[in-house]
Specification:
Layout (H helix, E strand, L loop, with lengths): L2 H14 L16 H22 L3 E3 L12 H6 L3 E2 L2 E6 L7 E4 L1 H6 L7 E3 L3 E6 L4 E5 L10 E7 L9 H12 L12 H16 L2
Parallel strand pairs: 1-3, 2-8
Antiparallel strand pairs: 3-6, 4-5, 4-7, 7-8
Helix pairs in contact: 1-2, 1-6, 2-6
GO molecular function, one term: electron transfer activity
Pfam family, one: Cu_bind_like
GO cellular component, one term: plasma membrane
Length: about 200
């Protein structure tokens, strides 16, 4: 799963788990304001996460030509823009071709030693979950026939600034000495991490 969704699920489980009862009884119909605000923040972050997934692009290697020998995949890759959580898909004849994720050396020399992953279903979907350069080749000697592609994955654009009231609450929590500032920069994973920190400060965990 994309890392930002894993962080979100973990935070939600933490916030929804039973808390130690307070010395001051509260109505069973009423949720503490801090807890309610924290949950609202996590809902907002989940919307950002869902938006990130909805905007993810599936890049089919070679387009309608698929994953086959004697195709210039560098030209194909140079006409694509890849972002974190996009998919790269390989379509090919099963039992004839395959896909290996290798490092720069393996890519240059067409070797699969120490490969980070390999696929052979004939229709492979691979999530590009980190901002870095990826290298993919075909084994069985087909890499030497041009079955290799390298793609550069860019970080997600920064999400929109949060509403002013949320920013004010976060600032207040930070000034009280137990909070963490809300910095929704660096993509969805950063937004979720910030939400977890601020929510923990408000709830006192």
């Amino acid at each position: 799963w994309p890392r930002h969704l894993i962080y979100f699920i973990a935070a939600a489980q933490l916030l929804l788990s039973p808390q130690t009862p307070s010395s001051t009884p509260q109505s069973s119909q009423e949720m503490p304001p801090a807890r309610s605000t924290a949950l609202s923040l996590l809902v907002s972050v989940s919307v950002l996460a869902a938006a990130g997934l909805a905007n993810a692009t599936d890049h089919i290697v070679g387009a309608n030509r698929g994953w086959n020998p004697n195709i210039n995949y560098s030209d194909w890759a140079n006409n694509q823009t890849f972002y974190v959580n996009d998919l790269i898909s390989f379509r090919y004849q099963k039992n004839t071709y395959n896909v290996f994720e290798v490092n720069a050396t393996g890519y240059a020399n067409c070797t699969t030693e120490g490969a980070a992953g390999n696929w052979s279903s004939g229709k492979d979907f691979i999530t590009l979950d980190r901002p870095q350069r990826y290298y993919f080749i075909c084994g069985n000697g087909f890499c030497f026939s041009g079955m290799k592609v390298s793609v550069l994955v860019h970080p997600l654009p920064s999400p929109p600034s949060p509403p002013t009231p949320i920013a004010d609450h976060a600032k207040a929590a930070g000034s009280s000495g137990g909070g963490a500032p809300l910095l929704l920069q660096g993509g969805l994973a950063g937004a979720v991490a910030a939400a977890i920190a601020v929510s923990a400060a408000w709830i006192g965990i």
